[in-house]
Amino acid sequence: MKSFFPGRRRFADLSESEVLALAISSEEDDARVYADYAEALRNDFPDTAKVFESMAGQERGHNANLTREYERRFGPHVPLIRRESIAGYYHRRPVWYVVNLGIDRIRAEVGRMEDESANFYLQAQKKATDPGTRKLLESLYRTELQHEEIAGNLAERYLPVDKKGEEDEKARRQFVLTWVQPGLAGLMDGSVSTLAPIFATAFATQNSHTTLLVGLAAAVGAGISMGFTEAVHDDGVISGRGSPIKRGIASGVMTAVGGLGHALPYLIPQFWTATAIAIVVVFVELWAIAFIQNRYMETPFWRSVMQVVLGGALVLAAGIFIGGS
Questions:
Q1: Cross-strand bridge partners of residue 87
Q2: C-alpha dihedral over 287, 289, 290, 296, to 10 degrees?
Q3: Between vectors from CA 29 to CA 27 and to CA 33, what angle results, nearest 5°?
Q4: Neighbouring C-beta atoms of residue 221, cutoff 10 Å
Q5: Cβ neighbours of residue 14 under 8 Å, at least 6 residues apart?
Q6: pTM for this structure?
Q7: What is the pLDDT of residues 151-197, one digit of tens each?
Q8: Euclidean distance between CA atoms 41 and 47, whole angstroms
Q9: Which end of the chain, N or C, is surrounded by fewer C-beta atoms within 10 Å?
Q10: 175, 247 contact by CB (below 8 A)
């Protein structure tokens, strides 16, 4: 049966030697993945980096055992067979992608990696005809199944509870500084600063289409401005606020979202219906901002309400007054 993926082979069609070659390259790749995680985390989370270094060493040990077994059975030349050459075979997410999601997401990704490897060895055993090869694959299967215990032992050695708590708190603070803080500033700016021009236009023209165009221009323009301002004014090296690109994206996108929230109701042709919905959206946005401030910035909730909701209501009233005068 042919694969539906041109240029790829099905796992079921691989010979025993090809399965071993695939296992060898997979273990080599996983060792490099763990080493990459260790390198990426070394500065901010040195204790977790040690855990990944040890796991990389384990994968290199698996690779060496598989290579010896291949050479015993099939000779010194091991053909290169990569994961991407096998249809339906598991793949690894890029390290540069996962490290941006936080340390807890990295730990979860490692668990997924080991589960997939265990399933591979379970299937590989079925193709083994040699008792020695079958025994090795069975051993590797059981090792991969024990990834939580192994990772736990390594964590106890390199990452005691107090260190893990310290790293988790550091990761939380970094998430707040890099994503939440600039995103919240953008959401506040987009939600509040666009109120006056949008509602002034709405009550001056009482035309949904014109108001929509002004709202889109204000939201997109503010998003671009806030994004660039956040990205260029602080490279994050001294302040520790993280990548300027990430902060710029968070600020720019959330600014645009804040402005678009009460501009999009004007897609409705009936002006008063659109305006009523837009006003409701404004108050939902303002209460959401107060909640985020309380949740991530540890600002007392009612202080946030007074700062954001009351302030936003005043800006809204100013826009309506100016537009209706």
A1: 10
A2: 140
A3: 115
A4: 14
A5: 22, 81, 86, 127
A6: 0.51
A7: 555 455 545 545 455 555 556 666 777 777 788 888 888 888 888 88
A8: 9
A9: N
A10: no
